[in-house]
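Consider a typical record:
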Amino acid sequence: MSVSRAIRKAFLAVEQSEGMGARVRRSIGTAKLRNFSPFLMLDHFTVSPPAGFPDHPHRGQETITYLLKGGVDHEDFAGNAGTIGPGDLQFMTAGKGIMHAEMPHKNADGSPNVGLQLWVDLPEKLKFCEPRYRDLRASEIPNIDVDDDKVHIKVISGQSHGVDSVKELAYTPVWLLDVNIKPGGRVQQELPVGWNAFAYTLSGTTTFGSGKDQTTVGPYHNVVFEQAGDVAEAQVAKDEKEDGHFILVAGLPLDQKVVQYGPFVLNSEDQVYQAMRDFQSHSNGFERGKDWRSEIGKGVSD
């Protein structure tokens, strides 16, 4: 018999400045939610040119970018370049070192570019793997409708109601589901036992949990589930005027120390200091950064 996960906490992600003129709502990686392995950071970003995220380094983590509106270009010092649009995702493994830029499109209607970026820790044995990218297009994502079509689920990574995602996209096991619930709809989503899980709300008013342990929140809240249990429950009241829309994310906790300094995420202070030295001296993974400048970031970083 399934056991519903209780709600550990729920809190509003407050908007703040980040990068070069971007606005983000950060919920993971703040005083309200740290050490939630394997998750390091979650940003809900809103950005328009000339703002953006020009040339910057990473080491030791993976980033998952899910674009909701607009377009974002990326470019790195290994020659990788591309664009993601609405509903597309990019999975980037920094590994031993990468320098890249992420810059928003200038949309014809003047609208901003909106999306989510999740940082996921890498297992210690993979901290110094070769960097890599994987793009996942909206058209490639399987989906399913449940509860008499009142619940629509995009299975980006993982499984839902008998539907499997296209492929493994991150080294650290992560499930990522985009869930939309119409008024009167309800869903029970199975999650791997022992994994940490949260829901981040994008619009509408949604009730999470079951029985006496229910929490109702509006947009831009992070709802953190207890680790015990194998089902996450969510519903939208019949009298609501708007659908409830959220992402549901679960990941395998990593039993390791996390030492983070900005874009470097390692397992000891010495490794972080070494990352800083390697980046500054263009060595041990950062060799190609010596004379590299992205084309897409030049207008902002000048």
Observations:
- The first helix runs from residue 269 to 281.
- The mean pLDDT is 94.
- The chain has one domain: 13-251.
